[in-house]
Amino acid sequence: MFLQECGLGGCDIAKLCVSAPRMLGNKLESVQAMVAHAEGLGVPRGSGMFKIALQAVAFLSEEKIAAKVDYLKKTFSWSDAEVVVALSMAPMLLKRSKDILQRRFEFLVSEVGLESGYIAHRPVILYYSLEGRIKPRCHVLKFLKENRLLDRDWSFYTAVNRSEKYFMKKCICPYKEAAPHLAEDYAAACRGEMPSNFRFT
């Protein structure tokens, strides 16, 4: 099978067909076009990201892919090289809503203070929910820094990229005595009930 020749195992192909069932009835030429589009994102055959790239480009025309690439360049001020880097690491950006991506990007730049190029090299950060993850963790870090409670210099990317269990263990639980309301405020923020400010006692 052509997809096996591209480095995908049977399990990978099965998962791909579940996520994109129309692929089962596709002609070989259509599948070959998808593979070419995935490679065009800078994702080589045989890499672990290749199956994700195929999901991202499945049934997207070359024109739609080009339009999304153009949108990323104009909206995020990314160079051609930065777009290639971003999509090779996070190809599912092609499937994300333009409005959602823009709101996440604008918050990361204006509120968190990240540079556009920095985000291009860590594009997975744009996958995370703005209300359910990015904002709450941003406010926790700001609170801890303003009150000089952090025992290490956390980068925002590290904080937002870690699992919920890890984040609680490292950024919430150690401060139960110094900031007893922090866990409560963080939980409320994750529910979309952003406190006016994180209290310090």
TrEMBL record:
Keyword presence, NADP: no
Gene Ontology molecular function: nucleic acid binding
Keyword line: Transcription, Transcription regulation, Transcription termination, Transit peptide
A Pfam family it matches: mTERF
Keyword Transcription attached: yes
Record-linked SMART domains: Mterf
Source species, domain of life: Eukaryota
A GO BP entry: DNA-templated transcription termination
Homology family: Belongs to the mTERF family.
Protein known as: Uncharacterized protein
Organism: Aegilops tauschii subsp. strangulata
Phylogenetic lineage: Eukaryota, Viridiplantae, Streptophyta, Embryophyta, Tracheophyta
